[in-house]
Every structure is written in C-alpha cells, then in structure tokens.
Amino acid sequence: MLQTDGRPHLTVFHEANVIGQLRGNQASLDRQVEPWANYEAFNGQLPSEAELQHLRALVIPGSTSAAYDDLPWIASLSEFIRHIYNDYPAIKLVGICFGSQIIAVALGGLARKMPIY
Question: What is the pTM for the complete model shown?
Fold first, then answer.
C-alpha cells in the first residue's frame, strides 16, 4: 500500500489487512497468506526495483491532498505510476478516491476542483 498522508487510519487499514489474513476463519488459514508492505509515498518512500519484481498489486488510498496539488511527492508518485504502468504491466494499480485520481492524472487524464468550491 502506498500511503498518501500520515492519517492513523491508513496504518490501521494496512494492519487490519495483514492481521485479517493471519486471524481469519479456517478457510482463510488454509490458503497461503498474502504479504503486504506499507510505503509512505507522501514522504518519498516507494518500492525499490528489487521489490517491484515481487509485487502483484499496489493500492493507493485517499489523501488529504488532491491529485492536482503542486506538491513534490505528488509529482514523484505520478512518475512512479507511469513507471509501473509502462514497465511492470503485471502489477495491478488499485486507486481509492485520491488514488484513482492520481492514477488518471499520471496516465494523461484530468482531475480538478469543482468550480462551486
């Protein structure tokens, strides 16, 4: 998961996914546990090239920032998304709220503030 701000619930979300896999019902215990990693994209932390070799998906959740904000970490994240899209087509990109906006913007789409706000 690529965290997009430091709100505590994002860390809890990540931990719940990992713990849920470890403490699930018997059916989930019988299957292989899927490892999760957490990266603070808002602090410039992104998976390394070596780590990308083993990833199956990246989840980009919501943020207190907007995809159109002029922040250095957003520009870096956009570049990273393009790198994944172009060079690692097997890695799924999952965006939630801000995540879907930044994926769209990074790949040539548009996100902007509604004019009524």
Answer: 0.80
